[in-house]
Fold these 4 entries.
Entry 1:
Amino acid sequence: MVKAYWAIMQEYLSDNFSLKELSILLAFIQLCSFSSVAEKLNIEPYTVKRIIKKIEQGFGFPIYILQNNKEIVITKEGQAQLPWLIDFLQNAQKIFAIDKPLSIFASVFISHLMVKHCFQALADDKVVLSTYSLGRARDYGLLTKQMINTYDVVHLNQQYEHLIDPNLWVCKFRYTTQVKLYATPEYLRAFPDIKTPEDLRQHQCLSFRRQDENVWTFYDRNNQIHQVRIDSRVIIDTTFIQYFAVEEGFGIAKLEQPVVEYFNRHDLVTVLPEYRLDNQDWAVYVRNDCKHKAVKRFIDTFKQMVDDKF
């Protein structure tokens, strides 16, 4: 009987309203505000209005009225939807979660490591893995924020943590990677010696983005700051790809040490080893409403990989 009921409801939903639309309806009845629902669910207010209008047309009655032309008041018919909406969504989420994939958003290099070292732990689960580059995350911050909130697990550079909504996410762990300058021995033999950061002006240095990556900061052994303006001919927005460009002898790049150690098939040389660069700090977040059965297993495996590799 229960299975038959849910089969009918699933068919009705697929033909009329999605779970997301009904979740928006529930939030709207509870909050009585387009902007509050938009903020809570991280969508645009006009999207809330459009979906409420669609549901009103489907139900055949108004969900709300405007009192004094500005105050939203939920109608009696709208209030009557509250009990079944809460019950239906709670049960639907449990049932539909069985087939829901674990969705992951991670940088290109970490995605590579996940596939190689973590996915075996998810062999019996459905997984959606999406990758991003640091440059794209920086250039399209608001769009990246919208994307982030559609995933269950996010691996993010801490300089982009402002894109994380603390009401939606919980940080599971953090880690730091050391950054150094690298080049091939062949490149260094072919070009002038590099004894100070200023000497880099005479070299081909790879950057992430022309607009704000043209100043490189170094710290000497006395912790004095040295800044050099770099005019890069080659812009590559992913550390993963920068490594292969350096390996091919295209120039010098700031690379995370774990990336070099993992892929180093060419014996890359550390440039200006007596100087220190800023480290890269990373964080791994899980949505606080994620109930996927594989999420804890994945996070444990991911953290163990980071501990082993980094």
Entry 2:
Amino acid sequence: MNIKNNNGIPVILKDLRSFFIKFFYMLSSEFTHYKDEFILYIEKYVELNKFYKIHKELDKIHNKSILIFHHNFGGGADKFLKEIVDNDKIHNYLIIHYNGNRKKYVITVLIKNFDLQKYEFKELDELSLLLKNVLLEEIIINELVSYTDIYTILQYMVNLKKELDVKLTFFVHDYFSVCPSYNLMYNDYNFCGICSPPDLRCLKDNKHVIKKYKSYDIQTWRNNWNLFFKSIDDIVVFSESSKNILTTAYPELNNRKIIVKPHTVSYIRKAAIDNNHINLTIGFIGHISKIKGSTIIMEMQRIIDSKKMNIKLVLVGILEKGIESDSLKITGKYKIGDLVDLVEENCIDIIFIPSVCPETFSYATEEAIQMGLPVAVFNLGAPAERVKRYNKGIIIDQIDAEYSLKKINNYYLKYLNSSTW
């Protein structure tokens, strides 16, 4: 929307002046028909003027912009988004997320060489007002977990793509598009197997499904996502595993739309570990929740303590609901630049990624591989896909703490004196 005349004066302000003249006439009973028109005009002015500062800056620089739908939960998707923005010196970014507590959309506007701006609004129509004066190049769906009325959101993005004639890209950071249980977990913390054909009872009873999504029907869910996928340009996945899960849920999906593009982890150096010791030290890295394997770690801890095994566990990170013991050390939160130093200081021999869900990538797995250490994972998702190709990889076929300890210890004893360690 062009809100300036040839002199650079906001047209709406000029029009408002003439409208005030009409307003004075409204005081006369002969011109009462102006009243409703005046109120509507003021409302329009207030809506547009909210974005006037942003529109003014965008008019100056003429850079194209990218609109990103995201959440504010952190994690790998957040890390990925930060990398995109930090490495792009050309585009402006409009990043939107839904604040469930405030029941409002929050949009962060990042314009090169301009102060960060934030806006809140209740309806997506206000986003359309902002976009009317934006030279948009692409719409990216980075995350939709937390948004309400998902079907409306999907249709809005398709309509926006058509209206603005821009590229629409979808990044698969989780399996929300497959199921509202976006880690594909059921109540027993086991991988649900994608439910193909869908189990119509699952969502209502599944404790991993956010309350606002429990009323959805899985068949309707997939029908709506299937229509959405037909309208978008690219689907970017970070592993072949994700591609397989997606095409299992959506057999009609056009494979030419799917781009397999693993994340790049270039910030980790090789670890120098002194293996001249007898006792095995198993390391874990990251923030370990239940789906990331906290129960497995605590059970390993219990077994080692009760059997007085000569095995040490070291978590470089945080363990939800876990406490230290003679067998388990927890370093706490760390900076990524300190990760390898902490691994070396604690003489970690093998890294175990105990995630019990099929991850779409797993930065922790790639970081462990880049350190050059043996890496153990369960036979699930993207971590298993990469570890199977790694010459120091350990695939654990049973999601069980005691079995995992045995498998990792056997590997350690076998290769302890090997030149391939």
Entry 3:
Amino acid sequence: MTIHTRMALQMLVALVLAFAIGMLAFPQHWSWVVLTAFIVCSGAVGRGDAVYKGLLRVAGAIGGTLVAAVVSRFVPPSGVIDATLIFIVLFIGMWLRPINYAYWAACATLIFALLQGSQGAGVGALFGIRVSCIVIGALCAVVATWFVYPVRTELLVRRRVADARAALREVQRGSRDHDLRHHLEQLERVAPPVRLHRAVFGTRSDTPHPATLIDETQARLRTVIERPKVRVYVSVAVSLDGYIDDRSDQRLVLSSPEDLADMRLAREQCDALLVGAETVRRDDPSLRSPNAARVTVTESGDLDPALHFFDGSARTIVLTGNEGAQRLRARIGDRAEVVVIDRFDPAAIIAALADCGLHSLFVEGGTRILTAFLAAGTFDRLRVAIAPFFVGDAQAPRLVNAASFLNDAKHRLVLRDVRALGDMAVLEYEHPRP
């Protein structure tokens, strides 16, 4: 049975109970019982949610009636004054409702009391009846949600926590198909009753309280949501048959002078340049660009401190694991910032760079780095410069290795620009937003 069918049946039972009890006990005010049952039961996603809303409804009704009694005592009855107060209270109630439903309940009760006062009904005389009707209506809703196809709040919380954490793991792996803010809102929707339970009854030491699970998961979600976004620009030059180098000792020059000049301009728009450790070892690139940090990733930490990469001409960052960090710090000292990451996927790399205060990344290679970023779809722009010749060596480094790519035939990139630079064709693609 779907959750919507359960909620409909619970609402039906709650309204039948409220109508029957209201007509028998309060024939003149039965609508107060039915209205409260409807409000408390409406949208209640679990037993705890119904109890929580019932308590807020009762607290708001008592507070609103008391305020109405004070107003009626000190403000003389007047149609204009009552109408003005009603609109003011309505505005305040709508303003405060997102903070807590009790404020809205208090304001709604105050409005009804002012309306009845303007019709000559004494606020104080109706106080007991009003509160009794609201309490009974809330109890009707609670009984229905507890005994008619009930949904246990703890199970609901744990399911939403599990869904949120699964989405968080996917996003951390580079997926863009999950809305973390939606999961944050869904957790907040079920949080109030379990937080109230924790405040009243405390926690057990043997198992985490559902409210604690929500707090911890929301903290993780906010960390990812609020982390500054790092824009990723992937640039690569390839031969006509898809190679980025050959197997000779010298770096294969693919780019024309015009393409190199254009690539330098693109580099200058980013504050970090990333190449893989194998590219650093093999090509010893200087990676010089104004105000841009040089970044590489290595699991082993096996990098020669004599490389141009560590010449001190620019901020240098090496991302590695715990063992690699120990080896690097012993070899290169303070020539580079050594940042430990627990995974070597693009999402972990980007998160680490964001924590380093970097907001735009220019990715140049080699094959492993390009494959990782392109397969996960972790990029905003892709620049492909095609050289007018073939390499023809099956053992030479290619643009990417075999992998499962996010942008397959059903998820195509958006072509934004095609231009000729010297004898090269340069294509620019944009990664479509989810």
Entry 4:
Amino acid sequence: MNDLIIKTHETHEILENGLCKFSNIHMHFSRISREISFLSGLMNNKPKIAIGGQAVIEGVMMRGPKYIATAIRKKDGHILIKKEKFISITQRNKFLGFPVIRGCVSLIEMMIIGIKSLNFSAEEATKDEEAKKNKSKDLQKNQNSEESKKSNKTKKEKPNKLYQGFTYIIAFGLAFLFFIFLPYRIAYWSNIEKTSLFFNLFVGVIRIVFFVVYIIVISFLKDIRRIFEYHGAEHKSVFAYEANPDFTLDDTKRFKTLHPRCGTSFIFIVLIIAILVFSIFDTILASILGHTIPLPLRIFLHILLLPIISGLSYEILKFSGKNINHWLVKIFSAPGLALQKITTKEPDEKQLETAICALKAALEMQIDYPDVEILNLKKLS
């Protein structure tokens, strides 16, 4: 019976982690225009060096021109930083640096970096939990032989890798189900597949609804709220750096948690661009075939078009970061900024310190905080 309870608990944890990774609506839209105006003043005076990142478990990952730094706040209070040298292939290969192509390549790079950063933060969180459990054990249980310790370590590593594998399978499975299969299936059930424009508009609206509902649901999870707070800390520290490279902790506190170059805005742009690209493609393909596009073929071809859509979305996001005052940019930015009211929360001082340490490490700046440990690793492959 106890084994059944443990397995049920483990399954629940796997599902919850899958949902958390399946991985980024406030009603005050009237405030968005004022926030965009506030952002424009900062973006026009920002440093030429671009910096960005993402929130991880109890920390922040930042990517600079030459380095990637992931800062984690450990249970004992000190900050652990994993620093790796990284130069994008789009800067080393001229062809891959062309517009649209660079967007697709950059997205793949950031997915790889993001997953590695999340895994690092998860491993450190696991170490903290194990250390906490070990303290509560009897001294006799801790006095095991070296062979026993090595055996236990090997047994623990395999379940951890298996556990992570399950969570990613669930995450990608849920992504396929809610953002690809179900929207198309619902559209076909609605008998509107004959008109490509309305079909893709309908599918796009369903995707947006699913995405917003998903964000709202996970925002109630305690661990996710912590990640959203670190997300806010990431944005605040980037804003502070863009306003003044010699910023302090107090400087970061006065900035908002909403940023126009956020990945949340990028996802919204992808969803909107997908409607346009899929509509054009489906119209051309339907005229060539002379009949309605079968659902399996439609899904397969739309998946193949995702690199182009991500590349176009990247260019739009890049343009919006440089032209925040443009009226079209304001329209595109508004939904993403509105959603960031959910995906970012006000951080505390310790979370801000963690984000600042990640930013400074990524930009090779001096870190003035005590109790900081930096792991300098080889070039990220």
